[in-house]
Amino acid sequence: MSDLPNPLYDFIILGASGFTGKYVVKEALKFLNTPSSPLKSLALAGRNPAKLSQTLNWATGPNPPPSIPILTADTTDPPSLRRLCSQTRLILNCVGPFRLYGEPVVAACVETGCDYLDICGEPEFMERMEASYFDKAAEKGSLVISACGFDSVPAEFGLMFNSRQWVGAAVPNRVEAYVSLESEKRLVLNFGTFESAVLGVANADKLELRRSRPKKPRSEIPGPPPSKGPTIEHQKKIGLWAVKLPSADTIVVRRTLGALTENPGGLPGRNESDEHIKKREAFWSTVKPAYFGVKIGTKSLLGIFRMIIIGIFLGLLGQFSFGRWLLLKYPSFFSVGWFRKQGPSDEEVRSASFKMWFVGHGFSDRSLASQGNTKPDTEIVTRVMGPEVGYITTPIILLQCALIVLSQRDNLPRGGVLPPGIVFGPTDLQEKLQENGVTFDVISKNVISH
């Protein structure tokens, strides 16, 4: 909670006029003052009030916009951010790239004890925030949760959903996620994602931070670690060609599994009911850790070569400033048409969707795993599906996380810088996502014959 005994707003959307921010506003308005929604008041914030007004008109069109306060705040002006945080219970931060603009917002939230959610998919930023702010956030009672969008909730909840299908003595050894982005029209992805990837290459050396920090306990996973496998893989069962995706998902999942190793019953809530304690401990007792990796898949081999070409451009040009300037000036050329500055049209957004397959290999009985060279004898395939990832699925996820923070705050940890899985796992987030168009299914359970 912020310093004010009764903050003015349930939450404030910061960066509401950006590409993704616009869609977050549109999603938020669906829940403002509707029956059974905890969202009674919200405000929009950013540098440019005129742009924020346009966003509000766009989000409510053709109807007239509701009277929602528009506040001016700038990430280069810390006092404006602290003023913002002192007026609300929760900040939804949509101002990316986060490694450029995120830290002042986290600092202001932690300072005022306000909660913070963002849609970041940048590992270096998340790890830096955890290293710099964890203790203070825990002390101030500020809950700071990054990756509350397509990065990385489908991965976290998809892995937990697959892991919970291994019942009784069965245990997973590894779960591979295959992401497939689909569209009836042209696939156009979020320019902010491309910009973050370019900056990610430039700052790859900053992940040194991880190596210099004390090692966290690793979860104990039955059976041997999986082998590297081929660079390009053909997954006949799900009809995809796939190549490894350097994404935030694996790192975020590893942080949740690490937190679970240290706290096998999950993290206690700030003021949780006995009933919730039982529910939380029961939930985590069914989540079994596994090695986890993410690949990006397409239906054709040509699509894979396209991804490899983009990867080569990013890898070569992202390392020096003129190369980065070229990449960001001509995104459409260097991404073979997938990213463009003006973003997709509303129609392109509506026609896109994603499927994320989770292929789990493991043992029908834990005792088999300890027999040294035994190969997994069981395969469980699950799937998470939803609408377009950047502008529809991400706002759906961010809003559902925010509504849970508003309505169930006492059942969530008091404070700290945490990944979404360990915080929202035992809540009803998965059910809420299902109700809003992001679905979870079990596809098959098979015995593997060697």
Give the SSE map.
Elements: E1 9-14, H1 19-29, E2 42-46, H2 49-60, E3 70-72, H3 78-85, E4 88-93, H4 98-101, H5 103-112, E5 115-118, H6 123-140, E6 143-145, H7 153-163, E7 171-183, H8 191-202, H9 208-212, E8 232-235, E9 240-244, H10 248-262, H11 274-285, E10 291-298, H12 301-317, H13 321-329, H14 331-334, H15 346-351, E11 352-363, H16 366-369, E12 378-387, H17 389-407, E13 416-418, H18 420-424, H19 429-435, E14 439-447
Parallel strand pairs: 1-2, 1-4, 2-3, 4-5, 5-6, 6-13, 7-10
Antiparallel strand pairs: 7-11, 8-9, 9-10, 11-12, 12-14
Task: Describe the overall structure.
- The structure is a single chain.
- This protein is an alpha/beta fold and 450 residues long.
- It has helices at residues 19-29, 49-60, 78-85, 98-101, 103-112, 123-140, 153-163, 191-202, 208-212, 248-262, 274-285, 301-317, 321-329, 331-334, 346-351, 366-369, 389-407, 420-424, 429-435, and strands at 9-14, 42-46, 70-72, 88-93, 115-118, 143-145, 171-183, 232-235, 240-244, 291-298, 352-363, 378-387, 416-418, 439-447.
- The protein has a seven-stranded parallel beta sheet, sandwiched between helices. It has a seven-stranded mixed beta sheet with strand order 8-9-10-7-11-12-14.
- Strand 5, helix 6 (123-140) and strand 6 form a beta-alpha-beta unit.
- Helix 5 (103-112) runs parallel beside helix 6.
- It is globular and about 65 Å long.
- The termini are far apart.
- The mean pLDDT is 90.
